[in-house]
Structure prediction request, 128 residues.
Amino acid sequence: MVTRTIIGNLAAEPAIVRAGTMTITKLRILENTGEYRAGTWTEHENPTSHFVEAKFELGEHAAESLNCGDPVIVVGREHTVSWGEGDHKKYGRVIEADAIGVDLRRTVVHVRRMQSKRASAEAEPSAE
Prediction:
């Protein structure tokens, strides 16, 4: 798998799906891309669409924190997925997120730390 970093905007609200006992949050991110031509940066006419999956706490926190249009930075491992059968089989690229953050060049956020499950279990009074 290839590690990728993308910077873009959420194109839709995060979608939460269940796969057995696991929760996966699916994100679609649009990234404005371009290239240097003759020493000048030229933006591509259409943004690149990326499909991102975030699992466990990362996915839960992303779904709770992010909304359509939010500027984000995603770091993850890109891989190919397939669906369909026979002649109708299709392929696509998905980034499995290792980290998701808000792009602070274009927004301001208020951070609220999550208490770890271990720390909250230790803080609960025991029933004696």
In short: The CA atoms of residues 76 and 97 lie 4 Å apart.
